[in-house]
What does this fold into?
Amino acid sequence: MGSLANDMGALRLRWIAVVVPVIAVGILDLVTDHEWSDIVNEPLNTLAVPVIVLLGAILMADVAFGRIDRLTSALRERNAALEQRERENERLQRQLRELAVRSERERIAREMHDGLVQVLGYVNTKAQAVEELLAVERPDEARRQLGELAAAARSVYVDTRAAILGLADPVSLDQGVASALEEYARRFADSSKLAVTIDASAAARSTRLAPDIEAHVFRIAQEALTNVRKHATARRAAVRLEVDDRQLTLAVEDDGSGFDSASTPAPDWPHYGMRAIRERAAAIEGSAEWSSRPGAGTLFRLRLPLGAARSAAV
It folds into this structure.
Protein backbone atom coordinates (compact mmCIF):
# COMPACT_ATOMS: atom_id res chain seq x y z
CA MET A 1 0.00 0.00 0.00
CA GLY A 2 2.91 2.40 0.66
CA SER A 3 4.16 1.89 -2.89
CA LEU A 4 0.63 2.57 -4.21
CA ALA A 5 0.49 5.91 -2.35
CA ASN A 6 3.91 6.83 -3.69
CA ASP A 7 2.78 5.98 -7.23
CA MET A 8 -0.31 8.16 -6.87
CA GLY A 9 1.75 11.08 -5.59
CA ALA A 10 4.18 10.72 -8.47
CA LEU A 11 1.27 10.60 -10.95
CA ARG A 12 -0.14 13.78 -9.44
CA LEU A 13 3.16 15.58 -9.84
CA ARG A 14 3.55 14.32 -13.40
CA TRP A 15 0.07 15.56 -14.28
CA ILE A 16 0.79 19.04 -12.92
CA ALA A 17 4.21 19.00 -14.58
CA VAL A 18 2.53 18.40 -17.94
CA VAL A 19 -0.49 20.71 -17.64
CA VAL A 20 1.26 23.79 -16.25
CA PRO A 21 3.98 23.94 -18.97
CA VAL A 22 1.37 23.42 -21.70
CA ILE A 23 -0.69 26.35 -20.48
CA ALA A 24 2.48 28.39 -19.97
CA VAL A 25 3.48 27.69 -23.57
CA GLY A 26 0.03 28.82 -24.67
CA ILE A 27 0.39 32.09 -22.82
CA LEU A 28 3.91 32.57 -24.24
CA ASP A 29 2.57 31.94 -27.71
CA LEU A 30 -0.09 34.56 -27.09
CA VAL A 31 2.54 37.07 -26.04
CA THR A 32 4.76 36.19 -29.00
CA ASP A 33 2.06 36.57 -31.63
CA HIS A 34 0.81 39.93 -30.36
CA GLU A 35 2.37 43.20 -29.44
CA TRP A 36 2.49 43.78 -25.70
CA SER A 37 0.42 46.90 -26.15
CA ASP A 38 -2.21 44.83 -27.96
CA ILE A 39 -2.30 42.36 -25.11
CA VAL A 40 -2.59 45.09 -22.53
CA ASN A 41 -5.39 46.70 -24.49
CA GLU A 42 -7.27 43.38 -24.87
CA PRO A 43 -10.52 43.32 -22.94
CA LEU A 44 -10.15 41.84 -19.48
CA ASN A 45 -12.65 39.07 -20.17
CA THR A 46 -10.56 37.83 -23.11
CA LEU A 47 -7.47 37.34 -20.95
CA ALA A 48 -9.49 35.99 -18.06
CA VAL A 49 -10.75 32.95 -19.97
CA PRO A 50 -7.42 31.07 -20.25
CA VAL A 51 -6.50 32.07 -16.71
CA ILE A 52 -9.77 30.76 -15.33
CA VAL A 53 -9.41 27.55 -17.37
CA LEU A 54 -5.89 27.09 -16.02
CA LEU A 55 -6.91 27.68 -12.42
CA GLY A 56 -10.00 25.48 -12.79
CA ALA A 57 -7.98 22.63 -14.27
CA ILE A 58 -5.41 22.83 -11.51
CA LEU A 59 -8.13 23.00 -8.84
CA MET A 60 -10.04 20.04 -10.29
CA ALA A 61 -6.86 18.02 -10.55
CA ASP A 62 -5.97 18.82 -6.95
CA VAL A 63 -9.46 17.86 -5.73
CA ALA A 64 -9.41 14.64 -7.74
CA PHE A 65 -5.98 13.63 -6.52
CA GLY A 66 -6.90 14.60 -2.97
CA ARG A 67 -9.89 12.27 -3.19
CA ILE A 68 -7.70 9.52 -4.57
CA ASP A 69 -5.23 10.05 -1.71
CA ARG A 70 -8.02 9.72 0.87
CA LEU A 71 -9.35 6.58 -0.79
CA THR A 72 -5.83 5.18 -0.92
CA SER A 73 -5.33 5.89 2.77
CA ALA A 74 -8.66 4.27 3.67
CA LEU A 75 -7.82 1.26 1.55
CA ARG A 76 -4.42 0.99 3.21
CA GLU A 77 -6.03 1.06 6.67
CA ARG A 78 -8.60 -1.54 5.62
CA ASN A 79 -5.93 -3.85 4.27
CA ALA A 80 -3.94 -3.45 7.48
CA ALA A 81 -7.04 -4.44 9.47
CA LEU A 82 -7.61 -7.45 7.19
CA GLU A 83 -4.01 -8.54 7.60
CA GLN A 84 -4.38 -8.25 11.37
CA ARG A 85 -7.56 -10.31 11.22
CA GLU A 86 -5.85 -12.96 9.09
CA ARG A 87 -3.00 -13.18 11.59
CA GLU A 88 -5.52 -13.58 14.40
CA ASN A 89 -7.39 -16.28 12.44
CA GLU A 90 -4.13 -18.14 11.84
CA ARG A 91 -3.34 -17.97 15.55
CA LEU A 92 -6.78 -19.31 16.47
CA GLN A 93 -6.49 -22.09 13.87
CA ARG A 94 -3.13 -23.11 15.34
CA GLN A 95 -4.70 -23.24 18.78
CA LEU A 96 -7.60 -25.33 17.47
CA ARG A 97 -5.19 -27.77 15.79
CA GLU A 98 -3.17 -28.03 19.01
CA LEU A 99 -6.34 -28.65 21.03
CA ALA A 100 -7.50 -31.28 18.53
CA VAL A 101 -4.14 -33.07 18.69
CA ARG A 102 -4.13 -32.91 22.49
CA SER A 103 -7.70 -34.19 22.67
CA GLU A 104 -6.89 -37.07 20.32
CA ARG A 105 -3.82 -37.99 22.38
CA GLU A 106 -5.88 -37.99 25.56
CA ARG A 107 -8.53 -40.14 23.88
CA ILE A 108 -5.94 -42.67 22.70
CA ALA A 109 -4.31 -42.76 26.13
CA ARG A 110 -7.68 -43.25 27.83
CA GLU A 111 -8.73 -46.02 25.45
CA MET A 112 -5.37 -47.77 25.83
CA HIS A 113 -5.72 -47.60 29.62
CA ASP A 114 -9.34 -48.72 29.62
CA GLY A 115 -8.80 -51.33 26.91
CA LEU A 116 -5.36 -52.73 26.29
CA VAL A 117 -3.99 -52.21 29.80
CA GLN A 118 -7.06 -53.76 31.42
CA VAL A 119 -6.98 -56.80 29.17
CA LEU A 120 -3.23 -57.30 29.70
CA GLY A 121 -3.84 -57.16 33.45
CA TYR A 122 -6.57 -59.80 32.99
CA VAL A 123 -4.20 -61.94 30.91
CA ASN A 124 -1.56 -61.72 33.63
CA THR A 125 -4.08 -62.79 36.28
CA LYS A 126 -5.19 -65.76 34.17
CA ALA A 127 -1.59 -66.80 33.49
CA GLN A 128 -0.86 -66.82 37.21
CA ALA A 129 -4.00 -68.87 37.83
CA VAL A 130 -2.90 -71.41 35.22
CA GLU A 131 0.51 -71.74 36.90
CA GLU A 132 -1.08 -72.31 40.29
CA LEU A 133 -3.53 -74.88 38.93
CA LEU A 134 -0.78 -76.80 37.16
CA ALA A 135 1.29 -76.70 40.34
CA VAL A 136 -1.48 -78.51 42.25
CA GLU A 137 -2.16 -80.86 39.32
CA ARG A 138 -5.58 -79.59 38.31
CA PRO A 139 -5.18 -79.70 34.52
CA ASP A 140 -8.87 -79.49 33.63
CA GLU A 141 -9.31 -76.19 35.44
CA ALA A 142 -6.00 -74.97 34.02
CA ARG A 143 -7.23 -75.85 30.53
CA ARG A 144 -10.40 -73.84 31.11
CA GLN A 145 -8.35 -70.87 32.26
CA LEU A 146 -6.17 -71.19 29.17
CA GLY A 147 -9.29 -71.08 26.99
CA GLU A 148 -10.36 -67.83 28.64
CA LEU A 149 -6.81 -66.54 28.24
CA ALA A 150 -6.85 -67.32 24.52
CA ALA A 151 -10.22 -65.56 24.14
CA ALA A 152 -8.83 -62.47 25.83
CA ALA A 153 -5.78 -62.54 23.56
CA ARG A 154 -7.99 -62.76 20.47
CA SER A 155 -10.09 -59.90 21.78
CA VAL A 156 -7.15 -57.59 22.39
CA TYR A 157 -5.75 -58.50 18.97
CA VAL A 158 -8.98 -57.44 17.25
CA ASP A 159 -9.18 -54.28 19.37
CA THR A 160 -5.60 -53.31 18.56
CA ARG A 161 -6.08 -54.00 14.87
CA ALA A 162 -9.25 -51.90 14.82
CA ALA A 163 -7.51 -49.07 16.68
CA ILE A 164 -4.63 -49.05 14.19
CA LEU A 165 -7.06 -49.03 11.27
CA GLY A 166 -9.01 -46.20 12.88
CA LEU A 167 -5.85 -44.11 13.29
CA ALA A 168 -4.63 -44.83 9.78
CA ASP A 169 -7.99 -44.18 8.11
CA PRO A 170 -10.39 -42.52 10.58
CA VAL A 171 -14.10 -42.33 9.91
CA SER A 172 -15.07 -38.72 9.14
CA LEU A 173 -17.90 -36.98 10.96
CA ASP A 174 -18.10 -34.21 8.36
CA GLN A 175 -21.44 -35.52 7.05
CA GLY A 176 -22.92 -36.19 10.49
CA VAL A 177 -23.24 -39.11 12.91
CA ALA A 178 -25.57 -41.19 10.70
CA SER A 179 -23.19 -41.21 7.73
CA ALA A 180 -20.22 -41.91 9.99
CA LEU A 181 -22.03 -44.85 11.61
CA GLU A 182 -22.86 -46.33 8.21
CA GLU A 183 -19.20 -46.23 7.20
CA TYR A 184 -18.07 -47.66 10.54
CA ALA A 185 -20.71 -50.41 10.44
CA ARG A 186 -19.36 -51.55 7.08
CA ARG A 187 -15.83 -51.78 8.45
CA PHE A 188 -16.98 -53.39 11.70
CA ALA A 189 -18.99 -56.04 9.86
CA ASP A 190 -15.98 -56.92 7.71
CA SER A 191 -13.65 -57.33 10.70
CA SER A 192 -16.06 -58.96 13.18
CA LYS A 193 -18.08 -61.12 10.74
CA LEU A 194 -21.26 -59.76 12.30
CA ALA A 195 -24.21 -58.58 10.22
CA VAL A 196 -24.71 -54.94 11.17
CA THR A 197 -27.58 -52.72 9.99
CA ILE A 198 -28.00 -48.97 10.43
CA ASP A 199 -31.43 -47.35 10.55
CA ALA A 200 -31.36 -43.55 10.87
CA SER A 201 -34.49 -41.42 10.65
CA ALA A 202 -34.67 -38.43 8.31
CA ALA A 203 -34.55 -36.11 11.32
CA ALA A 204 -31.43 -37.86 12.62
CA ARG A 205 -29.72 -37.45 9.25
CA SER A 206 -30.56 -33.76 8.97
CA THR A 207 -29.78 -32.75 12.55
CA ARG A 208 -26.25 -31.61 13.32
CA LEU A 209 -24.91 -31.34 16.84
CA ALA A 210 -21.87 -29.64 18.27
CA PRO A 211 -18.73 -31.42 16.95
CA ASP A 212 -17.59 -32.71 20.35
CA ILE A 213 -21.06 -34.13 21.07
CA GLU A 214 -21.23 -35.84 17.69
CA ALA A 215 -17.82 -37.37 18.44
CA HIS A 216 -19.04 -38.70 21.81
CA VAL A 217 -22.19 -40.20 20.28
CA PHE A 218 -20.10 -41.90 17.59
CA ARG A 219 -17.61 -43.28 20.16
CA ILE A 220 -20.45 -44.60 22.31
CA ALA A 221 -21.89 -46.45 19.30
CA GLN A 222 -18.42 -47.86 18.58
CA GLU A 223 -18.01 -49.09 22.14
CA ALA A 224 -21.51 -50.60 22.18
CA LEU A 225 -20.75 -52.59 19.01
CA THR A 226 -17.40 -53.65 20.46
CA ASN A 227 -19.22 -55.00 23.51
CA VAL A 228 -21.51 -56.99 21.21
CA ARG A 229 -18.52 -58.53 19.48
CA LYS A 230 -16.72 -59.37 22.72
CA HIS A 231 -19.48 -60.59 24.99
CA ALA A 232 -22.75 -61.25 23.19
CA THR A 233 -21.90 -64.26 21.00
CA ALA A 234 -24.23 -62.62 18.51
CA ARG A 235 -24.73 -63.01 14.78
CA ARG A 236 -26.53 -59.74 14.12
CA ALA A 237 -26.57 -56.24 15.51
CA ALA A 238 -28.91 -53.39 14.63
CA VAL A 239 -28.16 -49.72 15.23
CA ARG A 240 -30.98 -47.16 15.27
CA LEU A 241 -30.60 -43.39 15.43
CA GLU A 242 -33.66 -41.21 16.03
CA VAL A 243 -34.22 -37.53 16.81
CA ASP A 244 -37.36 -35.76 17.97
CA ASP A 245 -37.97 -32.29 19.36
CA ARG A 246 -36.53 -33.13 22.74
CA GLN A 247 -33.82 -35.76 22.44
CA LEU A 248 -31.55 -37.95 20.34
CA THR A 249 -31.84 -41.69 20.89
CA LEU A 250 -29.15 -44.17 19.89
CA ALA A 251 -30.07 -47.85 20.20
CA VAL A 252 -27.83 -50.88 19.64
CA GLU A 253 -29.56 -54.27 19.76
CA ASP A 254 -28.09 -57.74 19.25
CA ASP A 255 -29.39 -61.32 19.05
CA GLY A 256 -26.72 -62.70 21.34
CA SER A 257 -26.68 -64.64 24.59
CA GLY A 258 -27.75 -61.71 26.74
CA PHE A 259 -27.16 -61.35 30.47
CA ASP A 260 -29.01 -60.59 33.65
CA SER A 261 -28.98 -56.79 33.58
CA ALA A 262 -29.97 -56.72 37.26
CA SER A 263 -26.87 -58.65 38.37
CA THR A 264 -23.30 -57.44 38.84
CA PRO A 265 -20.87 -58.51 36.09
CA ALA A 266 -18.30 -61.15 36.97
CA PRO A 267 -15.29 -59.40 38.54
CA ASP A 268 -12.66 -61.43 36.69
CA TRP A 269 -13.54 -60.04 33.25
CA PRO A 270 -12.64 -56.42 32.41
CA HIS A 271 -16.09 -54.92 31.80
CA TYR A 272 -14.56 -51.55 31.03
CA GLY A 273 -16.77 -51.05 27.95
CA MET A 274 -19.93 -50.34 29.92
CA ARG A 275 -18.06 -48.03 32.27
CA ALA A 276 -16.53 -46.11 29.36
CA ILE A 277 -19.96 -45.71 27.77
CA ARG A 278 -21.46 -44.38 31.01
CA GLU A 279 -18.60 -41.91 31.38
CA ARG A 280 -19.00 -40.65 27.83
CA ALA A 281 -22.77 -40.35 28.21
CA ALA A 282 -22.37 -38.39 31.44
CA ALA A 283 -19.87 -36.07 29.74
CA ILE A 284 -22.59 -34.91 27.30
CA GLU A 285 -25.41 -34.97 29.88
CA GLY A 286 -26.92 -38.11 28.39
CA SER A 287 -28.03 -41.40 29.96
CA ALA A 288 -26.98 -44.95 29.10
CA GLU A 289 -29.01 -48.05 29.93
CA TRP A 290 -29.02 -51.74 29.06
CA SER A 291 -31.99 -54.08 28.86
CA SER A 292 -31.21 -57.79 28.62
CA ARG A 293 -32.19 -61.31 29.70
CA PRO A 294 -30.12 -64.49 29.39
CA GLY A 295 -30.67 -65.99 25.96
CA ALA A 296 -32.72 -63.00 24.71
CA GLY A 297 -30.06 -60.62 23.43
CA THR A 298 -29.28 -57.12 24.66
CA LEU A 299 -30.70 -53.69 23.92
CA PHE A 300 -28.55 -50.65 24.71
CA ARG A 301 -29.96 -47.11 24.60
CA LEU A 302 -28.32 -43.72 24.78
CA ARG A 303 -30.71 -40.84 25.41
CA LEU A 304 -29.35 -37.34 24.85
CA PRO A 305 -31.48 -34.24 25.53
CA LEU A 306 -30.89 -31.92 22.56
CA GLY A 307 -31.19 -28.42 24.03
CA ALA A 308 -27.80 -26.74 23.62
CA ALA A 309 -26.39 -29.86 21.97
CA ARG A 310 -28.11 -28.97 18.69
CA SER A 311 -25.95 -26.51 16.78
CA ALA A 312 -27.46 -26.51 13.30
CA ALA A 313 -29.81 -28.32 10.94
CA VAL A 314 -28.87 -28.88 7.33
